[in-house]
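Quick one:
INPUT:
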């Protein structure tokens, strides 16, 4: 899985077709499904009654919004339509869109980038979520933005992770601090921080391990790494990005919560949205993890990382014309 790199990946981001173009394939099935279910219920002459709301909840569940978020959204729609006269699908869609926008607005906003000579970013998450690939994609963005970048291969536990990051580093012509496989991740971090300071690097990206011997140890290790970073560079890590695999769906959220608590995640990168027809997971991330989604991964190439736009997303989820 992990070693399967796209050999043709360009070192610098190619021109993009925009947010919708990249995610539309994944979201197309989601919004079609939601609107079809609702459309059928409305067409059946049921109007805006309880059975339509049940269809709504079912449609949200099948889009992987998660049980709690689906029922919260259905309740919010119910509260606004209860006792109302018969309404049509566009009206329901508008109310749902507004409720989704409210839900997104309730989560913390993406933190502004702190101005600091050395910006340290940790990438955390379970094995296979796409951390190493995302580290490379972010590095390419940082480089394209004119920043000097250093990579740290602190995932010393997953077989092949160091070589994988080395391959990306070579392709992007970026320096990498690495130790041997199985080495202490904190030692790699310490060396990377020292190297970054000594070389006057602007952006240090740290690929962390997704698994150690036990989950408890992993969280302790991440906490220790945070302390080391903060001791060596005031305020570091300045960003801790939780990498989540969209295809894992709602089941991945419980584990994700541990990373939020123990690793202090400040935002989410949702990967493999190209391979998932269940884009509803984004809503569960906002409502249940209370974290903003900052980027989405839409492929294995280095330029397949797209800044996330929640407003556009909400419209695409409900089949806005602009997404077609
Ligand atoms: P890690 O264990 O978290 O470091 O995960 P990797 O970075 O090795 O990614 C696991 C697999 O997912 C690799 O085969 C990647 O190429 C692939 N991958 C990562 N991000 C994406 C994405 O956004 N879309 C797709 N389709 N594949 C991805």
């Amino acid at each position: 899985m992990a070693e399967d790199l796209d050999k043709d990946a360009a070192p610098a981001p190619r021109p993009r077709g925009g947010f919708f173009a990249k995610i539309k394939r994944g979201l197309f099935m989601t919004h079609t499904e939601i609107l079809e279910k609702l459309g059928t219920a409305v067409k059946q002459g049921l109007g805006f009654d309880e059975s339509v709301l049940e269809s709504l909840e079912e449609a949200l569940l099948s889009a992987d919004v998660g049980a709690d978020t689906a029922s919260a959204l259905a309740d919010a729609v119910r509260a606004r339509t209860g006792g109302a006269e018969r309404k049509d699908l566009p009206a329901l869609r508008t109310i749902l869109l507004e409720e989704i926008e409210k839900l997104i607005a309730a989560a913390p906003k993406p933190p502004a980038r702190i101005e600091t000579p050395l910006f340290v970013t940790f990438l955390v998450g379970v094995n296979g979520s796409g951390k190493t690939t995302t580290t490379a994609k972010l590095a390419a963005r940082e480089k394209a933005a004119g920043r000097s970048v250093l990579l740290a291969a602190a995932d010393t536990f997953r077989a092949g992770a160091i070589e994988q990051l080395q391959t990306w580093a070579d392709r992007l012509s970026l320096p990498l601090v690495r130790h041997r496989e199985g080495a202490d991740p904190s030692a790699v971090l310490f060396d990377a921080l020292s190297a970054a300071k000594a070389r006057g690097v602007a952006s240090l990206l740290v690929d962390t391990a997704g698994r150690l011997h036990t989950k408890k140890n992993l969280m302790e290790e991440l906490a220790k790494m945070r302390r080391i970073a903060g001791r060596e560079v005031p305020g570091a890590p300045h960003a801790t990005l939780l990498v989540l695999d969209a295809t894992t769906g709602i089941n991945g959220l419980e584990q994700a919560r541990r990373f939020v608590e123990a690793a202090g995640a400040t935002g989410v990168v949702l990967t493999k949205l190209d391979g998932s027809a269940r884009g509803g997971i984004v809503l569960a991330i906002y409502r249940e993890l209370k974290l903003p989604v900052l980027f989405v991964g839409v492929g294995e190439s280095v330029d397949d990382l797209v800044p996330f736009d929640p407003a556009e997303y909400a419209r695409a989820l409900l089949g806005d014309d602009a997404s077609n």
